[in-house]
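Researcher: Go.
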Amino acid sequence: MKKVKLGINVDHIATLRQARKEKNPDPIEAARVALTSGADMIVMHLRHDRRHIQEEDVRRIREEVKAPIHLEMAVTKEMEKIALKIRPDSVCLVPEFPNEVTTQGGLNLNGKTGELKRIISSISGAGIEVSLFVNPEPQDIRAAHNFGADTIEICTSVYAESWGKKIQAQELEKIQLASFLVKELGMNLHAGHGLDYYNVVPIANIDGMDCLNIGFSIISRAVFVGLKNAVAEMKRLTS
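Model: Structure:
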């Protein structure tokens, strides 16, 4: 059975640091601990409002941490410029709105997408893998493929927030069907958003899953058991 990779999002290490505008806790140190505990990739979301991760964090992790770096970013010229300058191994284009607590669902690929196509072409042309964060809908997956994305990251928030075995099973089936299409189109398959220690195993077991990107639940767990144990525990569940 193919091993599912684990991407650890260190955004909320930076959230804690920014509460005091201090140097610690340092996301770079968190990235190192995560990697020695089983993580396969380090994930960061550089938001327009810089509420947690800063551009300097991305630059330092790129230069100082020997591991694949995955940058989540909005579809803007500012973020395109940063990605081309820092050159992470991969980027995930995500929707971003002012005052949202966290990302709200996948990209809307039914509207004006000219800028999205241009940025995908620009970043891909620089040799950086491009992922689109989308809902598990066939039309969105096909659109992402047509736009030139390498990878689909399926938004799992609806699944994660579902109550009751029947409803959650329906959402899981929807993601599984979406994964079949992703693989049929020859794309990489990632998933994330809202995944935790109680709901992650069925997603990790989906046919064709390549990588899970998880942050908040792991950092929350680390408050009680330490980051090393929290990452290792998640790695055992997803392997």
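Model: The chain is about 50% helix and 15% strand.
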